[in-house]
Amino acid sequence: MAIRDWPQGERPRERLLAHGAQGVSEAELLAIFFRTGIAGRSAVDLAREVLVRFGGLNALFAAPLGEFRQVKGLGTAKYAQLQAVLELTRRALREELVVKNALNSPRAVQEYLRLTLAALPNEVFYVLFLDAQHRLLAAEELFRGTLTQTSVYPREVVKQALHHNSAAVIFAHNHPSGVAEPSRADELLTQALKSALDLVDIKVLDHLVIAGNVAWSFAEKGRL
Questions:
Q1: Per-residue pLDDT of the chain in tens (224 residues, 90 and over written 9)
Q2: Within 10 A of 139 (CB to CB), how many other CB atoms are there?
Q3: How far lies 202's CA from each of 112, 161, 182, 199, in Å?
Q4: Residue 63 has what pLDDT?
Q5: Which residues contact 8 (CB under 8 A, 6 or more apart)?
Q6: I need a surface site. Which of 16, 137, 163, 211 has the fewest CB within 10 A?
């Protein structure tokens, strides 16, 4: 049965308008985005199939065009629309960090980094460079590694921090394995970077490990 034939109170769009976006399921949100289903299957049915096939939203967002198009009912246009929505979300969060103190906007920091790093297949080391009011000056991927590790050079981190005239930084890297707990090597790296930046009076505010929907914070755990 097509969604237009459902009772009005059960239609995803009407439910969203009545209860807000947080009041509908992931499948219903995707159905609103897809707008239409395929012959014999509603947009909600298609959305459920997509979530099962990809194993969740993060994997869907990270899927390359070729894999995305393998699902009947999805194509280049929907892929472009999805990527546009994701980039708009990233830019909105980044805009928030430019005008607000990062320490007062931990949600925006974590969501921005999660959207940027969570779906990457390899480990990446990323840095937010902040001014004296902890507002964002620049956000850069400094190092890219393999599935399990990345080589990070403190000298290059210090060099870039000075280049941006930073007063503080927030580090982040992803764990493609899906395990957010930092390794001993991550802890040693964090302390080495902190010591190097202390020499030039640049504060390390946090180091976040991104794994799927989780952002593990060194600062929140008292390990900085």
A1: 566 667 766 788 888 888 888 888 888 888 888 888 777 778 888 899 999 998 888 788 888 899 999 988 888 988 999 889 888 888 888 888 887 888 778 888 998 998 889 888 889 999 999 999 999 999 999 998 765 567 889 999 999 999 999 999 999 999 988 888 999 999 999 999 999 999 999 999 999 999 988 899 999 999 88
A2: 19
A3: 22, 8, 23, 8
A4: 84
A5: 14
A6: 163
The residue assigned the tokens 């990062």 is: 102
Pick from 104, 116, 119: nearest CA to 64: 119
**Kind of pairing, strands 203-211 and 168-174?**
parallel
Taken in order 19, 108, 105, 136, the sign of the CA dihedral is negative
Instruction: Report residue 151 as tokens.
Output: 């080589």
Tokens, residue 209: 């490990």
Burial class from Cβ neighbours inside 10 Å (0-12, 13-18, 19+) for residue 5 reads: exposed
CA 116 to chain centroid: 4
Which uninterrupted H or E stretch holds 217? strand 214-217
For residue 38, the cross-strand partners are 41
Name the token pair of 157: 């981190």
Residue type, 126: Y
Contact 171, 135 (CB under 8 A): no
